[in-house]
Design goal:
The chain is about 30% helix and about 45% strand. The protein is an alpha+beta fold. The chain has a domain of about 120 residues. The strands form two sheets. Strands 3-2-1-12-11-6 form a six-stranded mixed β-sheet. It has a six-stranded mixed β-sheet with strand order 4-5-9-8-7-10, with no helix packed on it. A hairpin with a 2-residue loop joins strand 11 and strand 12. The longest helix has 25 residues.
Protein backbone atom coordinates (compact mmCIF):
# COMPACT_ATOMS: atom_id res chain seq x y z
CA UNK A 1 0.00 0.00 0.00
CA UNK A 2 2.77 2.43 0.93
CA UNK A 3 4.54 1.62 -2.33
CA UNK A 4 1.47 2.64 -4.34
CA UNK A 5 1.19 5.96 -2.50
CA UNK A 6 4.89 6.68 -3.03
CA UNK A 7 4.58 5.76 -6.72
CA UNK A 8 1.56 8.09 -7.14
CA UNK A 9 3.45 10.92 -5.37
CA UNK A 10 6.52 10.43 -7.58
CA UNK A 11 4.36 10.55 -10.72
CA UNK A 12 2.50 13.67 -9.49
CA UNK A 13 5.72 15.49 -8.54
CA UNK A 14 7.36 14.60 -11.86
CA UNK A 15 4.32 15.83 -13.78
CA UNK A 16 4.24 19.09 -11.78
CA UNK A 17 7.94 19.72 -12.44
CA UNK A 18 7.46 19.03 -16.14
CA UNK A 19 4.53 21.47 -16.45
CA UNK A 20 6.07 24.37 -14.49
CA UNK A 21 8.93 25.27 -16.90
CA UNK A 22 6.57 25.24 -19.87
CA UNK A 23 4.29 27.86 -18.38
CA UNK A 24 7.10 29.95 -16.85
CA UNK A 25 8.95 30.25 -20.15
CA UNK A 26 5.99 31.59 -22.14
CA UNK A 27 7.43 35.05 -22.91
CA UNK A 28 9.80 36.40 -25.53
CA UNK A 29 12.30 39.20 -25.12
CA UNK A 30 14.46 41.62 -27.07
CA UNK A 31 17.62 42.91 -25.39
CA UNK A 32 19.08 45.92 -27.15
CA UNK A 33 22.51 47.19 -26.10
CA UNK A 34 24.15 50.33 -27.47
CA UNK A 35 27.89 49.77 -27.10
CA UNK A 36 29.02 53.01 -28.80
CA UNK A 37 27.74 55.56 -31.33
CA UNK A 38 28.61 53.03 -34.07
CA UNK A 39 27.94 49.67 -32.36
CA UNK A 40 24.64 48.08 -31.33
CA UNK A 41 23.64 44.50 -30.43
CA UNK A 42 20.12 43.07 -30.48
CA UNK A 43 19.12 39.64 -29.21
CA UNK A 44 15.75 37.89 -29.33
CA UNK A 45 15.29 35.16 -26.72
CA UNK A 46 19.09 35.17 -26.33
CA UNK A 47 19.89 34.70 -30.04
CA UNK A 48 21.66 37.55 -31.86
CA UNK A 49 19.74 39.35 -34.60
CA UNK A 50 21.30 40.94 -37.68
CA UNK A 51 21.96 44.65 -37.06
CA UNK A 52 22.79 47.11 -39.86
CA UNK A 53 24.58 50.37 -39.07
CA UNK A 54 23.23 53.38 -41.05
CA UNK A 55 25.33 56.22 -39.70
CA UNK A 56 26.16 57.72 -36.36
CA UNK A 57 23.57 56.64 -33.78
CA UNK A 58 21.24 54.87 -36.30
CA UNK A 59 20.62 51.15 -36.95
CA UNK A 60 18.05 48.67 -38.26
CA UNK A 61 17.52 45.07 -37.14
CA UNK A 62 15.47 42.21 -38.59
CA UNK A 63 12.27 41.48 -36.64
CA UNK A 64 11.34 37.81 -36.00
CA UNK A 65 8.82 36.36 -38.48
CA UNK A 66 5.87 36.01 -36.05
CA UNK A 67 6.35 39.31 -34.23
CA UNK A 68 3.51 41.86 -34.16
CA UNK A 69 4.07 45.24 -32.48
CA UNK A 70 1.69 46.85 -29.99
CA UNK A 71 -1.03 49.30 -31.07
CA UNK A 72 1.05 52.42 -30.27
CA UNK A 73 2.95 51.99 -33.52
CA UNK A 74 5.69 49.98 -31.89
CA UNK A 75 7.62 53.08 -30.75
CA UNK A 76 9.31 53.10 -27.36
CA UNK A 77 11.78 55.67 -26.00
CA UNK A 78 14.38 54.91 -23.35
CA UNK A 79 15.96 58.03 -21.82
CA UNK A 80 19.68 58.63 -22.36
CA UNK A 81 21.54 58.02 -19.08
CA UNK A 82 23.71 61.13 -19.54
CA UNK A 83 20.93 63.48 -20.76
CA UNK A 84 17.28 62.95 -19.79
CA UNK A 85 16.19 65.39 -22.54
CA UNK A 86 17.29 62.85 -25.18
CA UNK A 87 16.12 59.31 -25.82
CA UNK A 88 16.97 56.07 -27.59
CA UNK A 89 14.01 55.71 -29.95
CA UNK A 90 13.18 52.13 -30.96
CA UNK A 91 10.53 51.35 -33.57
CA UNK A 92 9.25 47.77 -33.47
CA UNK A 93 6.55 48.39 -36.08
CA UNK A 94 7.96 48.32 -39.61
CA UNK A 95 6.11 45.17 -40.66
CA UNK A 96 6.29 45.90 -44.39
CA UNK A 97 10.09 45.46 -44.36
CA UNK A 98 10.27 43.34 -41.15
CA UNK A 99 12.79 45.86 -39.80
CA UNK A 100 13.05 47.46 -36.40
CA UNK A 101 14.92 50.75 -36.10
CA UNK A 102 17.04 52.33 -33.38
CA UNK A 103 17.92 56.04 -33.26
CA UNK A 104 20.11 57.11 -30.36
CA UNK A 105 20.45 60.61 -28.87
CA UNK A 106 17.08 61.51 -30.39
CA UNK A 107 14.82 64.36 -29.24
CA UNK A 108 12.01 63.02 -27.06
CA UNK A 109 8.67 62.57 -28.84
CA UNK A 110 6.05 63.24 -26.14
CA UNK A 111 3.27 61.31 -27.89
CA UNK A 112 5.09 57.96 -27.38
CA UNK A 113 5.97 56.04 -24.21
CA UNK A 114 9.12 57.22 -22.38
CA UNK A 115 10.89 54.90 -19.93
CA UNK A 116 14.20 54.95 -18.07
CA UNK A 117 17.26 53.21 -19.57
CA UNK A 118 17.30 49.54 -18.54
CA UNK A 119 13.51 49.31 -18.06
CA UNK A 120 11.71 46.29 -19.52
CA UNK A 121 8.47 47.03 -21.40
CA UNK A 122 5.96 45.00 -23.41
CA UNK A 123 6.33 45.78 -27.13
CA UNK A 124 4.18 43.19 -28.90
CA UNK A 125 3.40 39.51 -29.35
CA UNK A 126 4.81 36.51 -31.17
CA UNK A 127 2.26 33.76 -31.81
CA UNK A 128 0.03 35.25 -29.13
CA UNK A 129 2.85 35.20 -26.56
CA UNK A 130 3.90 38.56 -25.02
CA UNK A 131 7.19 40.08 -26.19
CA UNK A 132 9.19 42.39 -23.91
CA UNK A 133 12.17 44.64 -24.68
CA UNK A 134 14.97 46.11 -22.59
CA UNK A 135 17.38 48.79 -23.79
CA UNK A 136 20.83 49.18 -22.22
CA UNK A 137 22.80 52.29 -23.17
CA UNK A 138 26.41 51.39 -22.40
CA UNK A 139 27.74 54.01 -24.84
CA UNK A 140 27.71 56.86 -22.32
CA UNK A 141 31.47 56.71 -21.69
CA UNK A 142 32.35 56.45 -25.39
CA UNK A 143 29.99 59.31 -26.34
CA UNK A 144 31.55 61.79 -23.94
CA UNK A 145 34.33 63.89 -25.40
CA UNK A 146 37.70 63.08 -23.92
CA UNK A 147 39.30 66.33 -22.87
CA UNK A 148 42.76 65.27 -21.75
CA UNK A 149 44.50 67.98 -23.81
CA UNK A 150 43.01 70.97 -22.01
CA UNK A 151 43.23 69.20 -18.63
CA UNK A 152 46.98 68.66 -19.05
CA UNK A 153 47.36 72.24 -20.30
CA UNK A 154 45.58 73.62 -17.23
CA UNK A 155 47.74 71.48 -14.94
CA UNK A 156 50.90 72.76 -16.64
CA UNK A 157 49.66 76.37 -16.34
CA UNK A 158 48.88 75.92 -12.62
CA UNK A 159 52.28 74.37 -11.91
CA UNK A 160 54.01 77.17 -13.83
CA UNK A 161 52.12 79.79 -11.81
CA UNK A 162 52.99 78.11 -8.50
CA UNK A 163 56.65 77.72 -9.49
CA UNK A 164 56.82 81.33 -10.73
CA UNK A 165 55.19 82.66 -7.55
CA UNK A 166 57.61 80.75 -5.34
CA UNK A 167 60.63 82.06 -7.31
CA UNK A 168 59.24 85.61 -7.16
CA UNK A 169 58.85 85.38 -3.34
CA UNK A 170 62.32 83.96 -2.90
CA UNK A 171 63.85 86.92 -4.86
CA UNK A 172 61.84 89.47 -2.87
CA UNK A 173 63.18 88.16 0.43
CA UNK A 174 66.82 88.67 -0.70
Amino acid sequence: MNTKIILVLVVAITAALGIQPASAGAIHSFVITEVSSTSLTVTYDGSPLTVTFHGSESWTFLLPAGFLSNDVGGLVQWTEPENSNLANLVNFGLEDTRDGTVDSDHSILNQFPIVVDGTTVEVGTDGGVPVFATFHDNAEGSERARDTGSTIGLLFFALTAVFGASRFRSRQSI
